[in-house]
Amino acid sequence: xxxxxxxxxxxxxxxxxxxxxxxxxxxxxxxxxxxxxxxxxxxxxxxxxxxxxxxxxxxxxxxxxxxxxxxxxxxxxxxxxxxxxxxxxxxxxxxxxxxxxxxxxxxxxxxxxxxxxxxxxxxxxxxxxxxxxxxxxxxxxxxxxxxxxxxxxxxxxxxxxxxxxxxxxxxxxxxxxxxxxxxxxxxxxxxxxxxxxxxxxxxxxxxxxxxxxxxxxxxxxxxxxxxxxxxxxxxxxxxxxxxxxxxxxxxxxxxxxxxxxxxxxxxxxxxxxxxxxxxxxxxxxxxxxxxxxxxxxxxxxxxxxxxxxxxxxxxxxxxxxxxxxxxxxxxxxxxxxxxxxxxxxxxxxxxxxxxxxxxxxxxxxxxxxxxxxxxxxxxxxxxxxxxxxxxxxxxxxxxxxxxxxxxxxxxxxxxxxxxxxxxxxxxxxxxxxxxxxxxxxxxxxxxxxxxxxxxxxxxxxxxxxxxxxxxxxxxxxxxxxxxxxxxxxxxxxxxxxxxxxxxxxxxxxxxxxxxxxxxxxxxxxxxxxxxxxxxxxxxxxxxxxxxxxxxxxxxxxxxxxxxxxxxxxxxxxxxxxxxxxxxxxxxxxxxxxxxxxxxxxxxxxxxxxxxxxxxxxxxxxxxxxxxxxxxxxxxxxxxxxxxxxxxxxxxxxxxxxxxxxxxxxxxxxxxxxxxxxxxxxxxxxxxxxxxxxxxxxxxxxxxxxxxxxxxxxxxxxxxxxxxxxxxxxxxxxxxxxxxxxxxxxxxxxxxxxxxxxxxxxxxxxxxxxxxxxxxxxxxxxxxxxxxxx
Amino acid sequence: xxxxxxxxxxxxxxxxxxxxxxxxxxxxxxxxxxxxxxxxxxxxxxxxxxxxxxxxxxxxxxxxxxxxxxxxxxxxxxxxxxxxxxxxxxxxxxxxxxxxxxxxxxxxxxxxxxxxxxxxxxxxxxxxxxxxxxxxxxxxxxxxxxxxxxxxxxxxxxxxxxxxxxxxxxxxxxxxxxxxxxxxxxxxxxxxxxxxxxxxxxxxxxxxxxxxxxxxxxxxxxxxxxxxxxxxxxxxxxxxxxxxxxxxxxxxxxxxxxxxxxxxxxxxxxxxxxxxxxxxxxxxxxxx
Lengths: 789, 288
Fold this sequence. Notes:
- The complex is a heterodimer.
- Chain A has 17 helices and 32 strands.
- Chain A is of the alpha+beta class.
- Chain A folds into three domains: about 20-65 and about 495-630, Aldehyde oxidase/xanthine dehydrogenase, molybdopterin binding domain (Aldehyde Oxidoreductase, domain 4, 2-Layer Sandwich); about 70-170 and about 225-270 and about 275-310, Aldehyde Oxidoreductase, domain 3 (Alpha-Beta Complex); about 315-490 and about 635-785, Aldehyde oxidase/xanthine dehydrogenase, molybdopterin binding domain (Aldehyde Oxidoreductase, domain 4), CATH 3.30.365.10.
- In chain A, the strands form eight sheets. A seven-stranded mixed β-sheet of chain A has the order 4-8-2-15-12-13-14, with helices on both faces. A six-stranded mixed β-sheet of chain A has the order 10-18-17-16-11-32. In chain A, strands 1-26-20-21-22 form a five-stranded mixed β-sheet, with helices on one face.
- In chain A, helix 12 links the parallel strand 21 (about 510-515) and strand 22.
- The longest helix of chain A is centred in the last third of the chain and has 28 residues, at about 560-590.
- The termini of chain A are far apart.
- By secondary structure, chain B is an alpha+beta fold.
- Chain B has two domains: about 5-165, Uridine Diphospho-n-acetylenolpyruvylglucosamine Reductase, domain 3, CATH 3.30.465; about 175-280, CO dehydrogenase flavoprotein, C-terminal domain (Enolase-like, domain 1, 2-Layer Sandwich).
- Chain B contains twelve helices and 13 strands.
- Chain B has helices spanning about 10-20, 30-35, 75-80, 80-85, 85-95, 100-105, 105-110, 120-125, 145, 215-225, 235-250, 260-280; strands spanning about 5, 25, 45-50, 60, 65-70, 130-135, 135-140, 145-150, 150-155, 160-165, 175-180, 190-195, 200-205.
- In chain B, the strands form four sheets. Chain B has a five-stranded antiparallel β-sheet with strand order 4-5-10-6-7.
- In chain B, strand 8 (about 145-150) and strand 9 form a beta hairpin.
- In chain B, helix 11 packs antiparallel against helix 12 (about 260-280).
- The interface of A and B includes residues 663, 664 and 725 of A.
């Protein structure tokens, strides 16, 4: 192996921003601006709205893109983590002697070696950096080792003697609230009670059901990895794949016991995230080892280890009772949702809020009583994953809507249409939807799309069982399912998840700086598109995402970066534009309102004057640095009421599936979708989000499940944790972009990453039910559930 | 660290194994490297046989097919082997992805000896003789005598798998396999069925439903008496269904993280019924 130097990011000029726009709640003023949300200034060929290719696309396909696992530094060490084999055990003693005595080992660190705060966590710091006297889940880090070779580090970790006293694990979240606390903070992360409308109301038609969702993994392709380099002043530099650099820094610094400024993070190449990189994994461990040894330290989890290195989607058990009048109009929804949060808090309290707030679906529900519980167990910790609580409850409410349609002898699509929420309607949290929310149009576009033309095929790969040759066409039955789901965009309940961006234009070239984590969603493309549109330039440099050069961008999650960091970039560019135009206007003795930036020129609208932007911005150029905030939200009250969310987006899926009922095998033949997107800013990237999100939902519906046995993970590998292949996932037909620009969103665009994952699982399950007439109350639907159901 | 000998001839491989009889043999690496990467195995001595030309040979004669241990799944699917041993090609297609099929070999599938090894039911149904060579010379044995337990073979120290010799009966061959998705899966249940119109027998073997690779011998005998060997009438639904039940009786499946015993037994019955119907459709079969 050849040692190569770390790729050092280009230096970014950050001194003396000419203008700082920002502070709180300026969303409307900054984002919509004079042009208004409906007007896209000038898409050009490579601006906003154009089909611009990803700058990292070709390198990734060719294997030339440097992921965080590809980092190297001179004389670096390899880190390795020793993990608990027990779901619950007391640690009576740890002997690191044999590990330290191993040739090539530079450090073996335990909880006692953590110099600062012993625990970390996104919302509640309740998770030990290294286990301190107690382990609470299988895979919990107990010790970290640094050695001069990865195998030496691994073997040294195996040589650590831990004296465990195993105890019976608590694995049932429903038993957790009354069980002996397994953590000083207790066994309940959060309980929510949404009480809305007349709780005594009853409907003529009542349907009840109990549903379950298994534990899904984000299954990103690039396992956790990073490289930490100690500096000369007791600080540390960390190259890391993450979703949110600044919140990582905050937690790392607290646990290292040093100032945040002494921890400098740079985003390394991220191989997917889907929520799994919101929580810390190896960040603190790497920095501890680097500071302790004085050497650069690299860690790369193996694929198997990755299953223990990050949180998963919460498994859910849900009870529902829907009341409707004789025409199918919903009267009341009752639900109880129990999420297994696993051993530590992660984002459980926000996930259960989402699950509860959206439990009734995108429907007008005059009365609701929804109880949500997220409980602590000795199962693996659960947290953020694409859809964030709304996926689980969408399976519940859509299963109920189908059941209700059957009870009413009504078309399931018609039932959804007559209950569809719209702008101006009220959620079960009492919040009135003020933005766009075209649920009925999304339903109509998806359900009304032409029925798929599926020619008969003798190719067994088109049939259930695929390459296994199990099934002939005569062995199959076909079903169609429909589902619609929704969720919030951005963080909720009073959280100010702002984003920061800087823009500099010098010599006619724009440089944009933002700490937004590119995790595959396409921000690197979009940021350049925005700068081109706002500044009329073609060449846009996107500086590396770092903590040292710019403020927080917030998390690449919650479908929020197009809006929030897109908004910050737009605002920064507009601030620079305004400076340039003001100077030019003064020079020319005209009003800046009569000037625009276009094609690398400053042009007067009357066509009388123009100047090269490169000349105007020669030398020091112009620079602006902004913070962008969304409209404020508020906490839910004791009845789960309040304006807790910023904005909403919905999607619908129609799925046609062929099922082999004797063997319980499924081949999806067609997926058609429509989505509430606000405005499409890059069509290819939008298609990518919708296809990928839909596939992740297909996986949850049919195969993706972490199998637990008394707290032990039984399938921590891609051999046994399976995700859809091309024989499981058909092409996705996008029936329509439902484009109603969101008033306060930059360019009117809504985040589009999560909605496809929410309704696709439910639609697949509905199609399989339609084919088999089985109740199928749990996803994933395994072959035995059908064949022996 | 391991020491690795890369053998470039059968003699070199045998010599290396004679020198280190406990060495681990590495062919395509699709099983071994996974175990090494997971830290489950750390062999001290490795003999690489991917570059042994003798092991890559295969041949097709009128009534016999010889497949070298180094023949890859891709080769089983894409050469004349696919016509001579169709079930072997069908099984090979179910293994992994194209890169895995380009690397993985018949010898590796035998050496791993997993109950879920996809070619193993085919070898059993084709009365394979496994040819091994070692310090005591060449030995030949049936699959039953080669696979003696879950991931256990009767290979002796220093022995190397050389080839499998298969029957080439006149009649249809079927391999069917169930996994948790439609491609690239470890078997939850698999079945190979071979019709032999000269011997007037049906041979059926099962994968992933027992510690070994059981042949459903009682069901084979029972159904052979109910086939219209002379006129080629389609097998009746009743016979096919009962055959399925009788085949399932040969399975001794377990519950594990991939499936349940109940489902596996049920699935094997369905697969057997379907395989028999395909092999003995109206007028079909003996020309296949």
